[in-house]
Each structure stands twice: as C-alpha cells, then as structure tokens.
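Checklist before submission:
- one chain only
- standard amino acids only
- sequence pasted in full

Submission:
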Amino acid sequence: MSTSSILRTQALTKTYVTGTVETPALRGVTFELHKGEFTAIAGPSGSGKSTLLHLLGGLDRPTSGEIFLEEVALSTLSRDALSRLRLGKIGFVFQAYNLIPVLTVLENAAFVLELQGIARAERVARARKMLGELGIEKYADQFPNRISGGEQQRVAVARAVVADPSIVLADEPTANLDSKTSLELIDLMKQLNQDTKHAGTFLFATHDARLLDRVNRLVTLVDGRISSDEVRDSS
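Returned file contents:
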C-alpha cells in the first residue's frame, strides 16, 4: 500500500437547515486517506456516514472546512470543474445500483467512458473486459431488469472502476443483497483493490459487518465526529 495521500479533509462540517431548525450532521471531521486503502466509515444510523461520503464525492458542499482530492481543494472549483473532476477521478457505487434501465449491461458499464469521450470501440472493449473480470460478461446484452440484484450491483461496480478512477466511493453497496451475494461482491471489490492493474482505493459507508471484517482501516463516526480510526493488517 502506498503512503501517498489521495484525499483529506480539514475540520469538515455540514449542517442542514429546515426553516429555523439547524441539524448538524458533521462536526469537524479531519482525516486522510492514502492510495490503495480499502477503508470503511462505520457508525450508527444518523452518525453522518452517507453525508460524509457525499461531500467527499463532490455531490454536496460542506458548511465549513475543506476537502482535498489529490491536493485539489474542492471549494475552489466551479460547478463544471467539479463535475469534470468527479467524472475523471471518482467512481461511485450506490445502494440502489442507479443503473440506466434503457441501456444494456455493457452500455451501463461503458457509460462513464462515453461521458469521457472515449471512442466507441475502445470503451466497448474496456467495459466488456471489466464485465469479464467481474464474472458477468454473459449478461452484456441484457437490460438491468432482467438480471438479479447482485448482478446489477456488479454492473455498478464495473461502471465505477472501468475508467480507473483515483478513488471509488461506495454507499452501503451490500445493503440490498443477501449474505452469499454480499460476500461475493466484497471479495470482488477486494480483488480489484489488490490487483496491480487497477490498484483501486475504496472508501465505503457501511454498517455491514461482513464488509467491516474485510477492510484495512475502519473509521467510526458517532454524532458527526470521528470516535475511532483503526488501521488493520492489510491481508
């Protein structure tokens, strides 16, 4: 595992305002993520896990504090520049898969490459290869509603990693899957993390004990603050 910093935060806060009611979700979160880490953010419901992940991915803006992705301060970016950074540097895996129903499995897996302007022949070849690595190439011409939830989530992982992003952010990726399928998906993501061809950096928001058992590092949030940060054996 490299020791180079890929993402860091400084005194990050997020407060939601509804009328005159202020609800703090994050209260001064400072931490650093290094290239190649396989890290989980855990904590009870309402602890701020998903909020933190959305801020790190540039899907929302913090109330105060700063986020640096490869030393670029997200607060300095325009909306268009932030969109370009997300497209080029960040892969997303969501609990609800978020596949495009009118696109085939192959087209979904290649979607980020299409947005990046990659030529059709290259993006099809890369997406098909990634589907093969995840064991779902046989579904390439199917539509998402014709495959299982576990297979759909593999497509979502393929879409997230096919462009070799700097970091993959995954929000409760196993929440809708049964135990066997969850373990298979966790093992696949672990392989992608350790594979020298991809050397992916993964950050999860999760309460799934099976995933928590497999990460190299566990950051625990309680009431919007980091209560512990445990580095584990990397095996």
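Reviewer check: DSSP finds eight helices and eleven strands in the chain.
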